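Lay summary. Proteins are chains of building blocks that fold into shapes, and those shapes determine what they do. In this project we predict the shape from the chain. Here is one chain we studied, written as its sequence of building blocks.
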Amino acid sequence: MLFLLPLLLCLGPLHAEYLHIGQSFKTHDCASCAESLRKKLARDPGVESVNVDLRKNVAAFDLKPGNKIRLRRIRDLVEQSGFEPESAQVVVLGTASVERGIVTLGIAGTDDSIRLRDPEARMREFITRKVEIKGVVERVMSRGARIDILDVREARLVK
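And here is the predicted shape, written in a compact code that computers can read:
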């Protein structure tokens, strides 16, 4: 059994990570709140750059390769800074899978997974293949719990 461990380590988990997140929030005009949010986000070792724009009502940031950022954590930081989070524009890299007939994308290093809303079933051709997805993540109520659903806008294979 131990001889399988090196092989399993080489294969690694299905890897997914956020490359960019643009977290929108409801209108807010507190400049010091925006600066506080920018500083909180910039402290995370997975964040490459961050910009909070009160005119556009969005906190946008690029992420470092191999980051373990959770969208849930970003939304929590936005709320703690006095903003009310809305949808998020994201670019995420990963490998899609099917769970109980639903296409999902797992986020590496976390227990997060995102359901993919794909009415045209384009993502089915990408199952088990590495893909970069651009889309909008919305929080939706389902059976009393909030879940994240990624509305796929673009998808492309990555080598």
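What the prediction tells us: The beta strands are 17-25, 47-53, 58-63, 85-99, 102-106, 113-117, 130-142, 145-157.
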